[in-house]
Amino acid sequence: PGQAEIASSIYNDSSGKILKAYWNESEAKLIALCRKNGLLPRLPHDLYQGTLSIKDEAAVLLAHIHYLLESMEEKKDAFKFASFALKKKTDSDFAGLAEAGRLQSIPGIGKFIEKIINELYYKGTSAYYQETVQRFFNPEKK
């Protein structure tokens, strides 16, 4: 096939955006390759742990949880929304709320996500994140 045919199978002519079908197919191939080779499709927490502010680390971790759940066809948009909400806070505002036990005062952060963030804040890791990673590699064990 020529370049025009290839481009039309990838891009929407009117907007220039990648076609959803092409994106979904490419994403499915990436997920399958990652699982097959024991790799996460995003940067694992171990590689950035301690290099970001705790607020930014929590935001990235929540976004990663969202991505992993979405790749397993589990819709958990709360993680994505909480990640965005954290990014809007300053590091000092976040630290003050975390230390006061008031993370739920941030719109988009409920009890369960607060638990994940607190665990990361006080212990440096999240059991739920680790469980989600394990489920990604073993999707039949939901």
Q: Which SSEs are present, and which pair or pack?
A:
Blueprint: H1 3-10, H2 20-37, H3 45-48, H4 54-71, H5 77-87, H6 91-99, H7 111-123, H8 127-137
Helix pairs in contact: 4-5, 4-8
What does this structure look like?
There is one protein chain. The chain is built from 8 helices and no strands. It is an all-alpha fold and 142 residues long. Helix 4 packs antiparallel against helix 5 and helix 4 (54-71) packs parallel to helix 8 (127-137). The longest helix is centred in the first third of the chain and has 18 residues, at 20-37. It is globular, with a radius of gyration of 18 Å.
Produce a short descriptive summary.
The chain has 142 residues and is mostly helical. The protein has helices at residues 3-10, 20-37, 45-48, 54-71, 77-87, 91-99, 111-123, 127-137.
What features would you highlight for this structure?
142 residues; mainly alpha; 8 helices; 65% helix; globular
**What's the assembly state of these chains?**
single chain
Tally of helical runs = 8
> Helix and strand succession?
HHHHHHHH
Shape: globular
Termini separation:
42 Å
Largest sheet entry = none
Structural class by helix and strand composition = mainly alpha
Low-confidence segments, given as residue ranges, are: none
